Amino acid sequence: MLALTSFDEVIEQVAAGSIDRFEFEPRRNSECHRIFFRLRVGKTAYDSFFNSPVGYRAQYCIDIKNGPKQNRRLIEAITPLCLQSINQRGENDYPREKVLASLSGADAKVWINDTDWPAIDEIHINYAPWVAKAKNASLGTMAEQVARTKAASGVLAPENTHIEIKGAWLTPDNREWRDPGKAQRAEEIHDYGTA
Predict the structure, then answer these.
(1) Which pLDDT score is estimated for 134?
(2) Confidence band, pLDDT 50/70/90 cuts, at residue 94
(3) How far is CA 94 from CA 33, 98, 100, 185, in A?
């Protein structure tokens, strides 16, 4: 993992994975849906993707605008793999236009499964801004503590063998619906290591 020198190498490792599962995921209490893929990448590629000094979260640390740019590059690199997996399984319920609309949306993202975060109080990622926030997560006013709730998990280095590709939410007529709760995602990853 420390031998990696660029995010291009991370993209290459992730793009070498295989799709285990895909589905159109409905949004709770809404008519919106998005495409979801579960990508098997192996432990080394997962670690490189999420925890490496040149990995996905590191791209948001470099610059808040760089994170979404690299997220888009990664999605574009794995879109052919996603489409190929649908075609190979002969799925007619996944129109290419709808899949592409979801994957090309502004809110499409690659991330880990939220259950991957270990439930421990440790520091695995020694990135000073994240560590400082994690150490102060329970200090200050209630509003300040709530604002830092993600800090404690942001310094962890989860392990697994799968990552997730989540397309943008689409309305029934295939227009993107942007979740206001995710509007600060880039800033949260930059500030805390998680969103």
Answers:
(1) 86
(2) confident
(3) 12, 7, 10, 28
